[in-house]
Specification:
There is one protein chain. This protein has an 8-stranded antiparallel beta sheet. The protein has a 4-stranded antiparallel beta sheet with strand order 2-3-4-9, with no helix packed on it. With 377 residues, the chain is of the alpha+beta class. It is 18% helix and 33% strand. The chain has helices at residues 15-20, 25-33, 200-204, 212-215, 297-301, 305-326, 344-352, 357-363, and strands at residues 54-60, 69-74, 77-83, 89-93, 108-110, 113-115, 122-123, 129-131, 150-151, 153-156, 159-164, 190-196, 221-222, 225-230, 233-244, 247-259, 262-268, 273-283, 286-294, 367-372, 375-376. The two termini are 43 Å apart. It folds into 2 domains: 54-164, Rieske Iron-sulfur Protein (3-layer Sandwich); 190-376, Naphthalene 1,2-dioxygenase Alpha Subunit, Chain A, domain 1 (Alpha-Beta Complex). The structure holds FE2/S2 (inorganic) cluster and fe (ii) ion (FE2). FE2/S2 (inorganic) cluster (FES) is lined by residues 96, 98-101, 116, 118-119, 121.
């Protein structure tokens, strides 16, 4: 009898597909957020640089009801979020300045303030103590703002955002508003999330790393892209003719990024789609990524519904494929670059402005345009 044929270990069409293609439904959702046992340390993977400053999402607006208190962990810090009776979201460091209780687990909303569950001290959104029910006087230093560190909060585009700056400098820019979000003709957000075991910097390089699209995502080709870096903004426009049953259509993918955690992508042409793609660092080697999609309701409900869902599925699949690499790679400070690589170093220089106030000031008003060539296999 012949030996059974050896197992075919070839991994066509792309090796990373093998890691994720068998995952479907709830298994895929769980994989995206799962821990990764046996991870190498942040030091070994060279993922130790500080978090970049900017606005970052801490939750969706509809995840925080009036009177609700939530614990979250971002920037290697324990935080507590609550929504007061006035509807405002507020964020403080989670540990009470009295005896250190974690107010995200048991604290409650009283009026617009947060009451610690241990001895009922209350804090306002500035982090000042507003009441101690069993004391005759509040200690003077407890009455000051930031007795517990407070975080600037902004609620926009269906998200609660906090401003992170390592030295506590105030926000340096305002968040953009996306008209589609919450408008009557557009679908409620379709939401997806991942835990990626890498630094936010390495995820940031992905957009301009043009070569990987051919090998990781197996796109047959992609069009010339124009990238404009203007201060802290990056806009990238890729235009292409797209074949449809109704003939060729002018299509475009327009990326608009305000800062490392704040991305927005519009797919235009066949079917309009707005993707708000936001990243929030959890640790030096862990990022919480959220993708929120909205599309015209009439398209999503009509004959184009299948295509509408396919666009979303494909974008998420690409992120799954990237995650398999991001989770294990290390950061190369000085990558060996070849002539076919995209403008990775320009993107890295842009990123650096979010690490130092000086670099941020220097980048203001400076504009550069980069064109990447069309590629195909
Ligand atoms: S520890 Fe919070 S009130 Fe005592
Ligand atoms: Fe990618």
């Amino acid at each position: 009898m012949n030996d059974p044929s050896p197992v075919d270990a070839r991994t066509s069409p792309s090796s990373v597909w093998k890691l994720v293609e068998h995952l479907k439904g709830d298994d895929l959702v769980a994989w995206r957020m799962a821990d990764l046992p046996g991870r190498r340390s942040a030091e070994e993977r060279n993922l130790t640089e500080p978090f970049p400053f900017g606005w970052y999402v801490v939750c969706y607006s509809d995840e925080l009801a009036v009177g609700e208190v939530k614990p979250v962990r971002y920037f290697s810090r324990e935080l507590v979020i609550w929504r007061g009776e006035d509807g405002q979201a507020r964020v403080l460091d989670a540990y009470c300045r009295h005896f250190g209780a974690h107010m995200g687990h048991g604290g409650r909303v009283v009026g617009n303030d947060l009451e610690c569950q241990f001895h009922a001290w209350t804090y306002d959104g500035t982090g000042a103590v507003t009441g101690i029910p069993y004391a005759k006087a509040i200690p003077p230093q407890a009455k000051r703002a930031n007795c517990v560190a407070s975080w600037p909060v902004c609620e926009r585009n269906g998200f609660v955002w906090v401003w992170y700056h390592p030295e506590g400098a105030p926000p340096k820019w305002e968040l953009d508003t996306y008209a589609e979000v919450g408008s009557p003709g557009w679908t409620p957000f379709a939401k997806f999330e991942w835990r990626v075991y890498n630094s936010i910097r390495n995820l940031f390089d992905n957009t301009v790393d043009t070569a990987h699209f051919l090998y990781v995502h197996r796109v047959a080709s992609f069009p010339e892209t124009e990238i404009v870096i203007d201060g802290h903004y990056l806009t990238s426009v890729a235009r292409a003719k797209m074949g449809t049953t109704k003939g060729m259509v002018d299509g475009a993918i327009v990326v608009r990024s305000m800062a490392p955690g704040q991305g927005c992508t519009r797919f235009e042409g066949i079917l309009e789609t707005l993707l708000v793609n936001v990243l929030t660092p959890v640790e030096k080697d862990e990022v919480h990524a959220r993708f929120a999609f909205t599309q015209p309701q009439a398209e999503a409900d009509g004959p184009m519904g299948g295509l509408a869902r396919a666009i979303i599925r494909d974008v998420c699949k690409q992120f799954d494929q990237d995650k398999t690499i991001w989770d294990r790679m290390r950061h190369e400070d000085q990558p060996l670059i070849c002539d076919g690589d995209g403008p990775v170093m320009a993107s890295r220089t842009r990123y650096d402005q979010f690490l130092s106030d000086e670099a941020f000031e220097q980048a203001k008003g400076k504009k550069q345009t980069i064109r990447t060539k069309a590629r195909s296999e």
